[in-house]
Design brief:
By secondary structure, the protein is an alpha/beta fold. The protein is built from four helices and six strands; from the N terminus they run βαβαβαβαββ. Strand 2, helix 2 and strand 3 form a beta-alpha-beta unit.
C-alpha cells in the first residue's frame, strides 16, 4: 500500500525580492510544527520529506524533518506551476512511499485532484500548513483515496 501526505507550506510573508525567496512567518512555522506533531502523534510512519525548492517549502520541510527525524529530498517538479502528472510519474519511478510532500497552491490542490479524482477539473483548496493523507495500491491518476486531513 502506498501512503503519502500532501502538505501546503506554512503561512509565508510577502516580503523578499521574488516569489522564490518568500519566507515563513512566525505563525507559519508554528502552525507547520503543530500539524507535523499531530501527524506524528497519530502514529503514522514517515520515511522522508520531499519538498519544492522554494524557500517557504524548504523551511516547512526542515521543520518536518527535524520533528520526524527524516531526510529532505528537494524536487524541482513541486513548484507551483509544475505538472502533477509529471510528479506522479517521477514518484512511481522512485517507488515513493511513506513520504510527506511539501509544496504550494495550485500544485498541491491539482495533485490531490489528479491522484484522487483522476482529473484537474476541480482543484482541491488547501490552506497553509494543511496536510492530507492519501493512499493507493499503485501510483496513478484516480488511484488514490483520501485517508485523513490535519488542519493548523
Amino acid at each position: 500500500m502506498i501512503k503519502v501526505w500532501l502538505m501546503r507550506h506554512g503561512e509565508a510573508s510577502f516580503g523578499g525580492k521574488d516569489d522564490f525567496s518568500r519566507e515563513l512567518t512566525q505563525r507559519g512555522s508554528f502552525q507547520s510544527a503543530q500539524v507535523i506533531n499531530r501527524l506524528k502523534a497519530g502514529g503514522d510512519h514517515v520515511d522522508c520529506v520531499v519538498a519544492s525548492p522554494l524557500v517557504r517549502a524548504q523551511q516547512t520541510a526542515r521543520i518536518a524533518s527535524d520533528l520526524l527525524g527524516v531526510a529532505v529530498i528537494t524536487f524541482d517538479g513541486l513548484k507551483p506551476e509544475s505538472d502533477p502528472a509529471d510528479f506522479i510519474d517521477w514518484a512511481e519511478k522512485q517507488h515513493l512511499n511513506n513520504c510527506l510532500i511539501v509544496t504550494h497552491m495550485p500544485f498541491v490542490g491539482d495533485l490531490y485532484s489528479l491522484a484522487v479524482r483522476g482529473n484537474y477539473l476541480d482543484s482541491e483548496p488547501f490552506g497553509t500548513s494543511q496536510l492530507v493523507g492519501i493512499s493507493a495500491d499503485l501510483w496513478g491518476a484516480g488511484c488514490f483515496s483520501a485517508s485523513g486531513i490535519i488542519l493548523a
